[in-house]
Structure formats: C-alpha cells, structure tokens
Amino acid sequence: MNEQQRKEMSQIKEVSSSDKKSSGNGNLNRLKQMGSDDLINKYFQTTYEPPNLKKAKKRRREEVQIHYDYSVPEDMENVGKGKKFLIRTYGCQMNEHDTEVMAGLLTDMGYESTDDTKEADIILLNTCAIRENAENKVFGEIGHLKPLKTENPGVILGVCGCMSQEESVVNRILKKHPFIDMIFGTHNIHRLPQLLKEAMFGKEMVVEVWSKEGDIIENLPKVRKGSTKAWVNIMYGCDKFCTYCIVPYTRGKERSRLPQDIIQEVRHLAAQGYKEVTLLGQNVNAYGKDLKDMQYGLGDLMDEIRKIDIPRVRFTTSHPRDFDDRLIEVLAKGGNLLDHIHLPVQSGSSEVLRVMARRYTREEYLKLVKKIRTAMPNATLTTDIIVGFPNETDEQFEETLSLMEEVGFESAYTFIYSPREGTPAARWEDNIPMEKKKERLQRLNKLVNKQSAEAMQEYKGQTVKVLVEGESKKNPDILAGYTERNKLVNFAGPKSVIGEIVEVKIIEAKTWSLDGEMVEKAVEVK
Ligand code: SAH
Ligand code: SF4
Ligand code: F3S
C-alpha cells in the first residue's frame, strides 16, 4: 500500500469514553467508518472548536470534579511485559511532570523505559506549542520516526501534549503523517491505557482530544526522574489569557488541587528522601482562587508546606498580578522556602504590557519588586521577556532594557514574539521585521549575560549550600548541583554526596555557573 492509499484508508476512531461529559472534539462517534478526508473535514466542522477567546473566558463557570478512583484496566495490566517505552518531552515543567505520569501509567502496565528508539515498542512525543520553533522541532522529529515505523510496523507512535490541543496540528498529522498511531491531548492523559489498547488492537489512528477543560485526577502513578528533586502539580490551566499566549487554550481553565492532597504528596516525597519539591502551575500563585467556599491561597499552602521536613521548596511560575501580601509574608519566613522568585515581566513598557493584557504596569511591577525586596532582602529575581511584540517601538524596547537593569534580574529567559493561531495577537499585524527582532534579542541577551555574570561575581569567596544532582555534564570527575538561589555549582567531590546538600566554597565565577571546593563533609540542612 502506498502512502496515499494508506492515508485514504486511515480512519479516525473515537475511543469510547466512560465520561459522558467529554464532548467537543473528542466526539467522533458519528464519523466512524468514513474515508479520512471526509472525516477530517467533518471532524473539524462539526466537533472541533479552535481556540476562541470569548467561549474560553466563559468556561470558569463549568464545574470541575476530582476523581480518586484511577486504576489500570485489568486487561491492560500486563500488556507491556517484556516491552519498552520511550517518551520525548518538549516544553515546560508541566510537560516534564506529565511525562512522569505517563511513565507511571506505562510502568503499571508492565513496560520498561529505554533511551533507544530502536528498542522501543511505544514512542510518545509530549509536545509544546508555546512558539513556532517548538512546534517545528516536533514535526522534524515526527519525520525522523517514519523510517522506524517502516522497519518495525509494530511500534506504536503517539503524539500528545499541548500541540495535540491545536486544530491545525491534528489536521496536519492526519493528512501528512498517517503512520502516527495515536494523538491525545492534555486533559485525558489518564486514559493512556485505554487509548493504547485501541491503537494496539484497532487498525485506525486513534484520536482523542478533549476540549472539555479537564477534571482533576488524583492518585495517578508516577515514575519520577531522579530521587532528589520532585515536581508537584498544585494547579492546572491558566485563566490569564495574555494576548500572545496559547497556554489557556491548550491547558484549559484554572483548577486547583485540594490542599490536603498536595500536602499528603509532599509529605510522602519527604518520607521517601526527596530533598527538594517544586510546586507547579502555569499560573501557580492563582492557586486556590477556584476553590469555592475556601479563602485559601498559595501563601496559606506554603505556610503549611514549610512545616514539612523537606529541605527545599520552590514554586513556579508566578504571575505578578497574583503575587499577594500573604504570599510575601509567608515566603519571608524563609526556612525551606527558598528566596528565588521567577517573576515573568514580559516587557518594561506599560503600553506593551497593556496590549499583552498582562494587567499590570511597569510601575506596579516595580512596586511589587520593592515589596518583595523589603520582605526578603536576599531574594534573587529572574524573569521571562518577549521582544518584538506587534507595534513595539524602539523606545518601548529601551524601556525593557532599563527595567532589566532597574530590577537587577539575575537571569532571564528571552524570546522573540511568535504568533500563535487562535490568540488575539495573532490577528494583529506582526509589523516588526525579523532582523529588528533579532537585533533586540541580541541586545537584551547581552545585558542578561552581563547581569548574570555580575551576580555570580558576588559569590566569589562565599560558602554556599549545594544540592548535589550528579556528575557534571562536561566532566564526570566533577559534581554539579544548585544553590538555594538556583545557581549552578561545579566542584570536585566524592560520588557519595550525590543527592545530599553540601557546603561548597566558591573559587571562580563564570557567566552562568560557579566553580568551587567542597567544604569538609556533607551537612544535612533542615
Ligand atoms: N505561565 C508562565 C509561563 C508561560 S510560558 C507565565 O505567565 O509567565 C513561558 C514564557 O514563554 C512566557 O513567560 C513568555 O515569556 C513566553 N511566551 C509565551 N507565549 C509566547 C509567544 N507567543 N511568543 C514568544 N514567547 C512566548
Ligand atoms: Fe500564558 Fe502565562 Fe499569560 Fe497564562 S499567565 S496566558 S501561561 S503567559
Ligand atoms: Fe509548552 Fe504547553 Fe508548557 S505550550 S510551555 S508545554 S504548557
């Protein structure tokens, strides 16, 4: 069968869902048994809803349910015995953590993990949609997988994560990459066992992408990467709708886990010997806003978590708008709450911030920084910045540079604006030439490097506490780890301190890392 024939033969099949509320683009029932092109057209005309700001904003009223009854279906329990899986992860920490959940589900089915594509019986691409180049990488990888499928038709190839939530992506895979066996979204990861069953025993491509915002599924198994640091999701989704951003559409509405479920998870990690947890959310300090009948926010949650016997607690990513006094007051108590705050600013111009719908001005951001610095004088601040937003003038870009200096950010993730289909900004004229955007990015990066190097210099001669993660990537004789304020430190030391917190005296400061010497023996820090 040639590719064209295969494409025509390929059908989308709905995977029957036990959840009656799962509607929208997951509902392909009526469309079974049709030819692929017809099917694709119908699918998108009748059941798929592309990102729609007005509709998405109404979603907050929908009720979220928390499920505690997850288990792998009996007939899938041993299906992976003697088989291997590989998951490639793109994007942010939420995706990294989703990969840990999928690894948990696959392990529960008997699969083992592998790094070798040739050995794998299942390959999943957990994708990111945040910028165009993130998507291009994934399509490149999909292309690379094709010969693998030809060599080994039994291998199951799946695409999941944020790109799967986009109409254009699903459409492109259906039309151009019919050798993919399954596509599923961010709201139905827990259905991986059922989807896999369909992909294994059916002949059609399995597509299940829910536009339903997603409930919260507790008790999902996880295979965490490493035994020192752990991610803990405290909330899902984002309701901020910054005008450039795809996340509110790919991750759905904000929904918080219950405090007791989070606290129990952190306690459990502490008991297992983890040294650091990072509380995760796309908009992590909006935590609790959706918990009805509870006046409970991130500050309250952190106030409880700080009492747990785990040496380090971080959180990411917070939005300046939701950074309230209660949170600052609790963070200032210190202890295991580390004084590194990642606080994306995006631009230094109030006008650009207004059209980005960030809901704060330059002045308000600076006021917040002042408040944080007053309460936590040693706090390290880092940020995210976008350059080349539609209509950004030279003067407005200069304001970003001056804000960078005024706040004294010690590092920043910097990006060229990338239009995302379905977002409001993508409909505006992208009128800054690419050359200019690149020039701005270069100038900004130069400043970021300078400020990072200066911040590193301060550490020379100081003794810092380092959570040792393992051997350095460049030299196996050197160990590497992070300080409380998230600075990478390389030093010589015995392998026995991997996973421990040790004191290191800083000898040399580079732009992005520090070199040091271990001070006598490891010290356990509470
Ligand atoms: N929820 C976090 C992080 C979102 S994604 C926050 O609000 O800060 C991480 C970063 O990607 C953002 O902070 C932003 O700087 C960048 N980003 C998001 N959408 C983008 C786009 N369309 N083009 C370029 N950068 C983008
Ligand atoms: Fe995107 Fe962050 Fe804005 Fe949410 S708060 S829309 S995730 S940039
Ligand atoms: Fe990317 Fe989705 Fe995270 S778009 S940045 S993987 S939430």
From TrEMBL:
TRAM domain: residues covered: 457-520
CDD domains registered for this protein in UniProt: Radical_SAM
Cofactor(s) needed by this chain: [4Fe-4S] cluster
Matches recorded under SMART domains: Elp3 (SM00729)
Pfam families: Radical_SAM, TRAM, UPF0004
GO molecular function, one term: 4 iron, 4 sulfur cluster binding
InterPro entries: Elp3/MiaA/NifB-like_rSAM (IPR006638), Methylthiotransferase (IPR005839), Methylthiotransferase_CS (IPR020612), Methylthiotransferase_N (IPR013848), Methylthiotransferase_N_sf (IPR038135), MiaB_methiolase (IPR006463), rSAM (IPR007197), rSAM_horseshoe (IPR023404)
Domain of life from the UniProt record: Bacteria
Biased composition (Basic and acidic residues): 1-22
Residue intervals of the Radical SAM core domain: 224-454
GO CC annotations on file: cytosol
Similarity-based family: Belongs to the methylthiotransferase family. MiaB subfamily.
Name of the molecule in the record: tRNA-2-methylthio-N(6)-dimethylallyladenosine synthase
Organism: Terrihalobacillus insolitus
Gene that this sequence comes from: miaB
